[in-house]
Amino acid sequence: MKTRLRRAGGLLAVLSLTAVLAIADEHNRDILVVTSTNSTSNDVIVFKLNAEGTPWLSLAGMSPTGGAGGAGGNAGAVQFRDQLGAVANYGSNNVTQLERDGDSIRVVGTIKLAANCVNPVSVALTGSHLYVAGGNCAESHAWPSGRVDGAVVALPDTSAAQIAAGQSWAAVTLKSGNGSVLQLQLADDGDLNGTSVLVPLALGSGATPLGAAFWGDILGFNPAHVADSFALMDKSRDIFPVLGPQPAYPSNAPCWLAKGPGNIWYSGNSPGQAVSIFFSDAQGGAFYKSVSLPGVPTDITVSADQKWLAVIYTASADGLARVAVFAVDSYGDLSPVATSSPVGGVTTFNGVAISQ
Predict the structure, then answer these.
(1) How far apart are CA 281 and CA 299, in angstroms?
(2) What's 310's DSSP letter?
(3) Contacts made by residues 274-281, CB under 8 angstroms, sequence distance 24+
(4) First vs last Cα of the chain: how many Å apart?
(5) Whole-angstrom Cα distance, residue 7 to residue 235?
(6) How do residues 140-149 score in pLDDT, each as one tens digit?
(7) DSSP one-letter code for 176
(8) Measured on CA atoms in the order 226, 306, 85, 341, is the torsion positive or negative?
(9) Domains located in the chain, CATH noted
(10) CB of 257 within 8 A of CB of 297?
(11) pTM exceeding 0.70
């Protein structure tokens, strides 16, 4: 009996040590920034952030997704959560599933869209679901299995820019006309229940909702091209517009959105060539300031620990795509850390995510 107890105790000690080492290794993993080329043969591009000493971004890997790109005027084409990620393949009507393996990212499979759904432009991830918006449908998939889960919702037109998911509802921003937001209800288990409400915007001529992100059950989005270039929408579909940087469009137009720490939001301001920062409560907010970029941003993300921000942009100097990484301090301010070099003449990356 004593021998068996000693053996059991030794086994528990080994298992405990293994778990501790695994957790420590995970906490010490490299910070990776993931994007895609959006080309005819779509590729996943992975950059490694070396934050020690003089920070720099190095190309860590490049792999074909097995699908085709081709989307435009969209955000959220690349997402990562914990060990798994997803990339929308607009031209081949599918989504590529990614997996982090140590300090590398690898392609592990392909997820087909629901029947008769085409041209995925944006994806969103929760712990149990993948949400996809495309040319004609919004759909949910069990994650990570990839099977279609719940009802497929027909979109009113082909102008979807981004899909985002909150606690009890999801949303698709639609660029057509003066813009609208399609509210999608979620079932208790997180899949789409088939109920949707189209919410037209009354924010002036030219309002074009593009980027979107959730803070709990509050949706933030960018109705670019009008003075109130940031807005909040609650579950009851009440909309609270927020004045953006001035002068307004065409000089400034916050377009692509990421939720930061606390009540802070970051937006890729394409014509202003900057990251614009907003503060909010649940029913409004204020523009804080813009941090300049040497080019036009096309998507933006914040790391899970909310200490890093990555933005993809096309450089004004040479017309080539780059990734810029900023450190986020305890007040939400941004400090430039590193910028990638061009990759193979690619002019526009599509989608950006951070894996830690």
Answers:
(1) 24
(2) E
(3) 274/245, 275/300, 275/309, 275/311, 275/326, 275/334, 276/244, 276/245, 276/252, 277/332, 277/333, 277/334, 278/230, 278/242, 278/244, 278/254, 280/215, 280/220, 280/230, 280/232, 280/242
(4) 45
(5) 56
(6) 999 999 999 9
(7) S
(8) positive
(9) 31-355 (2.130.10.10)
(10) no
(11) yes
Q: What is residue 53's predicted lDDT score, i.e. its pLDDT?
A: 82
Pairing label, strands 308-315, 321-328: antiparallel
Sequence-separated (6 or more) residues with CB below 8 Å from residue 77: 36, 38, 71, 87, 88, 90, 121, 122, 123, 299, 350, 351
Mean pLDDT, 10 residues at a time, over the chain (356 residues)? 46 38 57 97 97 91 97 98 98 98 96 98 98 98 97 98 98 96 98 98 95 98 98 98 98 98 98 98 97 98 98 98 98 97 97 98
> What letter does residue 248 receive in the DSSP assignment?
-
Structure tokens at 286: 């204020």
- 88-116 in b/e form (b: 16+ CB < 10 A) is bbbbbbbbbbbebeebebebeeebebbee
* Distance from C-alpha of 269 to C-alpha of 74, rounded to nearest angstrom: 14
Matching residue, tokens 């449908």: 137
HEC string for 89-119: EHHHCEEEEEEEECCEEEEEEEEECCCCCCC
Question: Could you read off the pLDDT of 275-309 as tens digits, one per residue?
Answer: 999 999 999 999 999 999 999 999 999 999 999 99
pLDDT (0 to 100) of residue 16 = 39
Helix (H) or strand (E) holding 14, with range, is helix 2-27
If you search the block for the tokens 């609208």, which residue do you land on?
180
Per DSSP, the three-state class of 23 is helix
